[in-house]
Write a structure and sequence with these properties.
Chain lengths: 293, 293
């Protein structure tokens, strides 16, 4: 599997590895007034670990590449690096290398190398009739981001959720090991957009029931807000019993939110009466717009 | 081997891997008026491959993380990515993943995963009495950088050398496989600074003969100018005959430039009459100063 899934999968004799890289950039993903160095470091790790989780893998090695402005204190850099190491250790991985460059804005790029399960869960395995589930709660990080943009001193669970993404590694690993999920992705750019990736890769459509979304606010944010880092996965009907038997071991809540349909029906959200819900914009694309920060 | 050598070395059952990451940042390492997207992409790959070469390894997989401003055209991004892929393919590696983020300046961070030789050449193996060699020519890239800073339209071999680092993978692999080098590093921050890394890691000193440096200009640039991406390596006396027998297979010139001495003698350069050469600054440190661009 090359570019285009959550991670690249490479086979080396006797081992299958997952590779993924992602960056947190000041002014794009965060402002320095919003997060401590510890929070930036931890989040930089967790957003990468989320890609490993979405394949059902286990992070092992971390490479850290930091660009920092001269005004960013050495002590803050140390706090940032320590937080990355601590977050890695907490999930069974370790930092094995990195580099530091001077630049105009703080940018933290991590590369994770992980162990793949025997059958990594790709985006491409969903079939019409599969049931769609999502872990945790959607839209909260986007709400926290909205609050921080209005007031850098904002507080509350939404802000905390923006600062600290969930870690769904145990859930992802279980869903892969038990071969429950036919397709899986982490929700980083908004539910509809990431669901779109599964549908494109699998050649299917999907129907989301708006009323069923696990959310703590604006249903539109649950559909299109980014940075949830929850797992979205499809489960074939004959694996549903196994899923329900194991759900207590996922380590997090899960919610049935819709189903996979034939491609001709497209990807859409419907309200409680079955009417299509108009969606203003299809997910958060860091590149297509100015970015949140 | 963890952080602190050219690459991290990780053992997976049946295979030893090298991991390295490095970034090229606009305004720090280059200006957009100095290099085409193809040149930026190729250089981003070659500076990372240089770290693999310095361990004697072979690059296999590449992850690409690009931050680009909105004004950077999609066509230029495609040219950049194609150049990275082409440079990787030319050395037996392939791009397996990546991501794109919007940001204020262009920044290209690559992670390379490579195969390690059975005995990767570390920085820590040099012993007093070992002879020091360097591949290629020193100081030319720094001279090209100087010319570009004065005139973005500058031309000539020095400028070309700044834009296109050498690829010393065959030389590094041979020196490792034949167990000729006791310690090795790539010269990225200037000869004296990188020699200092070998000496610190090995607990030794070194003496460089200024007159012997393979250079094409200011001897100070050969000592302290950065971005050469040549290999600096130490060879024990009993391996010198083997080195000379194989030198035709290195794929590049090599020059004897000094020797490893006991730690108490420090790291210094001497002129043709054996007098110590005062050095203004010990190498190019991207972080300690404003940066070249």
């Amino acid at each position: 599997v090359g570019p285009g899934d959550d991670c690249a999968v490479v086979d080396v004799p006797g081992r299958r590895l997952l590779l993924t890289t992602d960056a947190l950039v000041e002014g794009v993903h965060f402002r320095l007034t919003w997060m401590t160095p510890e929070q930036i470091g931890r989040k930089a790790y967790l957003v990468n670990a989320s890609d490993i989780a979405a394949m059902g893998g286990q992070p092992r090695y971390v490479l850290v590449s930091v660009t920092a402005p001269g005004r960013y204190a050495g002590r803050d850099l140390m706090r940032l690096n320590r937080a990355i190491s601590a977050a890695a250790r907490a999930t069974g991985a370790r930092v094995v290398g990195g580099n530091l460059t001077r630049g105009r804005t703080l940018s933290v790029t991590l590369t994770l190398i992980g162990d793949s399960p025997a059958h990594p869960v790709l985006r491409a395995g969903a079939r019409a009739g599969d049931v769609l589930f999502v872990t945790g709660v959607l839209g909260q990080a986007a709400r926290g981001l909205r609050q921080l943009r209005r007031d850098a001193g904002a507080r509350g669970v939404a802000v905390e959720r923006f600062r600290r993404p969930p870690c769904r590694l145990p859930a992802g690993a279980l869903l892969a090991r038990e071969r429950i999920a036919s397709a899986m992705i982490d929700v980083s750019d908004g539910l509809l957009q990431d669901l779109g990736h599964i549908c494109t890769a699998s050649g299917v459509g999907a129907r989301i029931e708006l009323a069923s979304l696990p959310r703590a606010g604006d249903p539109m944010l649950a559909l299109t807000g980014g940075e949830d880092y929850e797992l979205l996965y499809a489960v074939p009907p004959h694996r549903l019993a196994r899923l329900h038997a194991l759900r207590g071991r996922l380590g997090c809540p899960m919610t049935r939110i819709g189903e996979i349909v034939p491609r001709a029906q497209g990807v859409r959200a419907i309200d409680a009466r079955g009417r299509p819900v108009p969606v203003a914009r299809a997910g958060f694309d860091h590149f297509a717009q100015r970015g949140p920060a």
